[in-house]
Amino acid sequence: MSEFFTDPHLKFEKSLDGLTSEEIKTFIPQEFNGKDFFIEFYKHFNGGYFYGGAFIYRDNFNKINDNDYNLMEIESFNFISLDDIDSPYLLSISDVLKYRRKISKDFIDFTQFNIPFAGNAGDNDYWISLETGEIKYTKSTDIDCLDNIIDIAPSFRDFCLNIQSKRR
Q1: What is the CA 53 to chain-centroid distance, rounded?
Q2: pLDDT at residue 1 above 70?
C-alpha cells in the first residue's frame, strides 16, 4: 500500500476488487493531470474505508489564513460501479453524482468537469477536476457550497501521498 499512501499506520479497508485500466478509462474517459496515478490506484483499490480515520492538511499545498480550513478528515474513497457492483460500506461515484445533481442546476454543471472520488463522515465530498487534476472539497450542507469550494491538493497523487492516520 505504500505506493499510494506514505503513512504506514493508515488502515484502508473494505475496498472492492480493483478494475482494469480499460474499465477505469471507460468510466472516466477525460484526460487530466495525474490520471495515471488515479488509474493505478483504482486498479488496486476500487474505493475503500479508512478504519481509525485519516486526515490531510491543506497547508501542505496551500497558504492558509487564520480562519481557513486546514485539517481535513477523510472517511472513505468512493468506488466505481460497473455491472451493478454494490458495497454495504462505501458510496459509488455514480450515486454521489446522482445525489449532488439534485441540489441545483449549478451542481449539474459542476459535475460535468469534476468527479467525487472521496468523502468524509459529514457527507461532504472531495472532487477531482477533470480539467486540471486538482483536488477540491465541498460541504454538502452548505447551500452556497459551489461559491465556497475549498482547494485541497494539486493532484490525486499529492492528495493520497499526504494522507495521514493521526492529527499533528
Answers
A1: 15
A2: no
